[in-house]
Amino acid sequence: xxxxxxxxxxxxxxxxxxxxxxxxxxxxxxxxxxxxxxxxxxxxxxxxxxxxxxxxxxxxxxxxxxxxxxxxxxxxxxxxxxxxxxxxxxxxxxxxxxxxxxxxxxxxxxxxxxxxxxxxxxxxxxxxxxxxxxxxxxxxxxxxxxxxxxxxxxxxxxxxxxxxxxxxxxxxxxxxxxxxxxxxxxxxxxxxxxxxxxxxxxxxxxxxxxxxxxxxxxxxxxxxxxxxxxxxxxxxxxxxxxxxxxxxxxxxxxxxxxxxxxxxxxxxxxxxxxxxxxxxxxxxxxxxxxxxxxxxx
Length: 297
Known about the structure:
Layout: H1 3-15, H2 18-25, H3 29-43, E1 48-51, E2 54-57, H4 59-87, E3 92-97, H5 99-116, E4 121-126, H6 132-137, E5 143-147, E6 155-170, E7 177-178, H7 180-185, E8 188-190, H8 195-206, E9 216-217, H9 221-229, E10 234-238, H10 243-248, E11 251-256, E12 263-271, H11 278-294
Parallel strand pairs: 3-4, 3-5, 7-11, 8-9, 8-10
Antiparallel strand pairs: 1-2, 5-12, 6-10, 6-11, 6-12
Helix pairs in contact: 1-2, 1-3, 1-4, 2-3, 5-11
């Protein structure tokens, strides 16, 4: 199995067309077909099938798709690390971040790091918290910023952080206060802010006979805020993500009168037994310092 074969398969999967994949890769269509055929022979299964004027992935192709992308990412990372070691450059590090952590926590921390280490290239990958452990274990990324702590024998936590959560709604027809029973019955827009938040929701749901039936699981936080501003329900989100909307009064903060809201738990994690990567170590040290300040804002 070669990277050329994986690249061909991923292009075909992306465009659902052999001819468009060939044009994207600047190759002849027979070359793309040959690479795909050799890959299928090695795997012992057809990955694509003809469908109308194009192609579709078979169930085997769908099952292989994410692994092909991750395998290609690992190969590229390995080549880049060898190149960095050979040339003595600042190096490269990849980090996975959730959308909210990336926008409101990692972005300002990255600016500070790049001032300190301008020769280090940082690649940022958006990923859900549940996806990041797999990316670390496959060495697709060297660091991950996730919601909540994690317990895994092959992963370690570099640092944990906490940030304030608040209850918010659109500015129309709200009194500014809310109770646990109100939350249980309301259209609560639910995102994931770590296990403490999940436990809090379970308690709220259990406090009312029909608790949670109107809740909607939703992410990212920008979509949540858009629905709130449009008048749909209430939500509990990081305070750091709502500063502008609260100032503009397009959202209002609701005081929960009969319970304390948990914090948003954030963890910076990495592989326990990992290949040497000085750039990743420097970024981890910088984030451990900088995020402590950012999460207090």
